[in-house]
Amino acid sequence: MSVTTAKGFRAAGVSAGLKASGNPDLALVVNDGPQFVASGVFTSNRVCAAPVVWSRRALEDHTLAAVVLNSGGANACTGEPGLADTATTAARVAQRLGVTPAEVAVGSTGLIGVRLPMDKLLGGVDRAVTELSEDGGAHAARAIMTTDTRPKTASFTGGGWSIGGMAKGAGMLAPALATMLVVITTDAVLSAEQADTALRAATAVSFDRLDSDGCMSTNDTVLLLSSGASGVQVDTKEFTAGLAEVCLNLGHQLLGDAEGSAHDITIAVQGAASEADALEVGRAIARSNLFKCAVFGKDPNWGRVLSAVGTTGAAFEPESLDVSFNGVMVFRHGGIGEDRSLVDLSGRECTVVVDLHAGTEQAVMWTNDLTYGYVKENAEYSS
């Protein structure tokens, strides 16, 4: 279960000396083909890191042969020298693999505003190339960790084809995307259009709706690489469903490992007039520090939910609202519901359901740990 689950990929994770701890800090994922289709989505933060700038350009032709990622330094806000460091990194990988620099994406994570020690990093690249293997996915996942307490990997198996992925991220988790480096691989035969369509649809219901602390990173990168090694051509809808499952799996792992988190809160917004309304309501609740403090204190304070809902522009009538905590409807049709002492918040899991009674569509969200993922009728993307 890793980035080498799909056929046609090798990976490695090594210690380049970027971390004072000596822990693994450089990962390399290589696509051996026969197909080299790729797509990516990146942070929407206007202050973005040099690797993001480079990788966006590298993906203009929707092809990648490799991805090199380092922890121990974000290479963000480092100016022209930082951009040059990223270009040098890609060039070194390309030289060692016999490809062009434009076929190499770069990802970095760590402290902002610090130059990378390039002599160590390039030495790590050389070592990673020699250690590439079809069993190297687990090592690569560990090498991209920063404050993560455990590596994050996921996989999906379709009819003769598969998807594998790895992710890192434990802080600055907020739309869109969230502070993360994610590499997803597949051996399905995809066109560039299919890959891009599927990735954007999958991230829209997973990583784009991930939030634990309301802070957006400068380095967010999610890459999809297709080797086509299975020889199986897939339906776009079917592939998107599998990809979304992998993204949601990784997203839940990121949230479960978020710095200082104590609860996994599911916020379900029902009866919204539109997807946009549902997401606005869910996001308002999730972003309420008072609400999160209440859950942390094991207090089903539904007033904090309602006050957050009331700040939105969503269509609803206050006298029609319902709110439930862990199956207990504490607020019913605009008035006091069941005794809130019946709510058990002793465990890590908490589910808050808000029914706006304004429509028939439903959105589902997960929070602080917090993700919001939209569920339409007859089209579930949760796992």
Description:
With 383 residues, the chain is α+β, with helices and mostly antiparallel strands. The chain folds into two domains: 9-256, L-amino peptidase D-ALA esterase/amidase (4-Layer Sandwich); 264-380, Ubiquitin-like (UB roll). Helix content is 29%, strand content 24%. It contains nine helices and 16 strands. Strands 13-12-11-14-10-15-16 form a seven-stranded mixed sheet, sandwiched between helices. Strands 3-9-8-7-6 form a five-stranded mixed sheet, with helices on both faces. The two termini are 16 Å apart. Mean pLDDT is 88; it is low at 361-383. It catalyses: N(2)-acetyl-L-ornithine + L-glutamate = N-acetyl-L-glutamate + L-ornithine; L-glutamate + acetyl-CoA = N-acetyl-L-glutamate + CoA + H(+). Belongs to the ArgJ family. It is found in: Cytoplasm. The active site is at residue 179. Keywords: Acyltransferase, Amino-acid biosynthesis, Arginine biosynthesis, Autocatalytic cleavage, Cytoplasm, Multifunctional enzyme, Transferase.
The total number of structural domains is 2
Q: Report on the biggest sheet.
A: 7 strands, mixed
Computed Rg: 22 Å
Please report the distance between the alpha carbons of the first and last residues: 16 Å
SSE order, one letter for each helix or strand:
EEEHEHEHHEEEHEHEHHHEEEEEE
Q: Could you name the ranges where pLDDT drops below 50 across 5 or more consecutive residues?
A: 361-383
What is the tally of helical segments?
9
Structural class: alpha+beta
Q: What form results from the Cα inertia axes?
A: elongated
Strand content: 15-25%
Number of strands: 16
Strand order of the largest sheet: 13-12-11-14-10-15-16
Stated plainly, the CATH topology of the largest domain is called L-amino peptidase D-ALA esterase/amidase
CATH architectural grouping of the largest domain: 4-Layer Sandwich
- In the CATH scheme, the class of the largest domain would be Alpha Beta
Mean pLDDT: 88
Helix % is 25-40%
* CATH homologous superfamily identity of the largest domain: L-amino peptidase D-ALA esterase/amidase
